[in-house]
Task: inverse folding
């Protein structure tokens, strides 16, 4: 097996072979998801715990669907109903869940690095479903799958990521993975939302919206992550929308077949107009569809992995 790590935490060290393997596996699961009966016994008898300390619609639901379609028993725990409310630590919570013989624990947490810390200290397979502003690796894989299915390739494509890059784990995971796949990545957003040390990413920075969109094969729009800011880093949403929003008039400057993507949730009328979000160019619901197949792929190869030590 190309992917033989205990956990799935980051895209940073994924090789092109591992990314290809994940996407190929997910293509098979896409086919299963289109059948009338969508259940297979790959993970029958296995137990998957979804442990979410932040809100989620797409990621939590698709991990649950993915696990159930693979025949596993899936339990969802959210921070509001867990004993973390009574002061229990994340490590103690995970160790207690591990003691119940769980096979895979999927974790979303607001602290960057928290999921890797847990993974390095328990034997159970751990999947990062988003840690603070650090990484969201399965989102990146489903974005790559969506692009590959529509464009037929990844290498050489121009991708522009627009918005609150500084607070976006989706941007980070995508930058690492897309560069590994030979894609050209450009960023654009308010200067206050471009991360300090952006040079480390070795990507281009656009000066204005026209430059950001004009050569793009794919545009990924990001929402403003208010929950990760001490105070709002822009004067107003109206001004933000005017300068950084993707509207029909901005789309006139882009390639006619440009793909418009967004990890969700969308703030309609802020970073993305409803007309563009619901247009022929939008691949947003394709991303959601592919999220189930990617998560089936990740859960199944981790469950089959014999590696009980090394994380990625
Ligand atoms: N893309 C994403 O992570 O969406 P949710 O927050 O709804 O899971």
Result:
């Amino acid at each position: 097996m190309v992917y033989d790590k205990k956990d799935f935490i980051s895209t940073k060290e994924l090789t092109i072979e591992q990314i290809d393997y994940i996407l190929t596996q997910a293509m098979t699961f896409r086919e299963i998801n289109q059948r009338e009966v969508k259940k297979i016994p790959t993970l029958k008898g296995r137990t998957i715990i979804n442990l979410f300390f932040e809100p989620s619609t797409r990621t939590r639901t698709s991990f649950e669907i993915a696990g159930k379609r693979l025949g596993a028993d899936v339990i969802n725990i959210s921070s509001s109903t867990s004993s973390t409310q009574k002061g229990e630590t994340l490590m103690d919570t995970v160790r207690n869940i591990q003691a119940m013989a769980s096979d895979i624990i999927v974790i979303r947490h607001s602290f960057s690095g928290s999921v890797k810390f847990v993974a390095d200290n328990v034997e159970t397979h751990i999947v990062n479903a988003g840690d603070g502003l650090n990484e969201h690796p399965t989102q990146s894989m489903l974005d790559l799958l969506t692009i590959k299915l529509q464009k037929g390739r990844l290498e050489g494509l121009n991708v522009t990521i627009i918005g609150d890059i500084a607070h976006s784990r989706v941007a980070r995971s995508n930058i690492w993975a897309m560069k590994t796949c030979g894609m050209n990545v450009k960023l654009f957003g308010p200067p206050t939302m471009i991360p300090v040390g952006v040079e480390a990413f070795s990507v281009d920075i656009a000066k204005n919206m026209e430059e950001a969109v004009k050569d793009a094969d794919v545009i990924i729009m990001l929402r403003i992550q208010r929950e990760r800011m001490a105070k709002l880093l822009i004067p107003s949403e109206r001004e933000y929308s005017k300068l950084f929003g993707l509207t029909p008039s901005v789309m006139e400057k882009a390639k006619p077949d440009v793909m418009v993507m967004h990890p969700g949730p969308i703030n309609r009328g802020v970073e993305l107009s409803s007309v563009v979000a619901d247009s022929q160019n939008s691949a947003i619901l394709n991303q959601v569809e592919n999220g189930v197949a990617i998560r089936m792929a990740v859960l199944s190869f981790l469950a089959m992995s014999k590696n009980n030590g090394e994380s990625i």
The longest strand covers residues 125-131. Residues 113 and 276 are 35 Å apart (CA to CA). The radius of gyration is 19 Å. The chain has two domains: 2-135+290-311, 137-287.
